[in-house]
Amino acid sequence: MDKLIDNTDLQIIEQLRKNSRITMKELGEKVFLTGQATKNRVERLQDLGIVERYTINTNCPAFGYNVHALFHVDIDFGKKSELVKFIKKASSHILHCYLSDSNTKMHIDAHFKSIEETEEFKAYLARFGTCHTHIINKEIRGTHPADE
After folding, report:
1. For residue 144, is it within any domain?
2. pLDDT for the residue 119
3. Which residues belong to any copy of the HTH asnC-type domain (predicted)?
4. Mean pLDDT (10-residue bins), the chain, 148 residues
5. Is 107 helix (H, G, I), strand (E, B) or coil?
6. SS3 for 95?
7. 33 domain-assigned
8. By residue range, what is the domain housing residue 32?
9. What CATH number does residue 20 fall under?
10. Are residues 34 and 64 in the same domain?
11. Burial class (CB in 10 A: 0-12, 13-18, 19+), 73
């Protein structure tokens, strides 16, 4: 994969991570290319599957989701498919969900309006295995470092 992309491609990716709404002209100025050359590189990165989508970050507390929690579930034998089905249908307050360790552990990153709502979610997850919850006090660095 490293031979498919160069330093300019890496700079383009970093700029898109900071602001996916940037114009090709502005992006080109930042990486010292013309707007058209930049557009061609971005399209190539998309064709290679390196750039998959353009998305937004939301400020969950700004619209009432003040509790940020991480859940770690040790999934009971035979309950994985039911848990995955539940997560796929669950509310949009789930930001990320990962399976790890031979698909026997699930990690969920979610926001809630209250501690009570968080506890209800944890109680439901306990139907699928042992659940550990961590309430987040402060984010140090997110996946999209726009302000760095």
Report:
1. no
2. 96
3. 5-66
4. 83 94 97 97 96 86 92 96 92 89 92 95 96 92 57
5. strand
6. strand
7. yes
8. 7-48
9. 1.10.10
10. no
11. buried
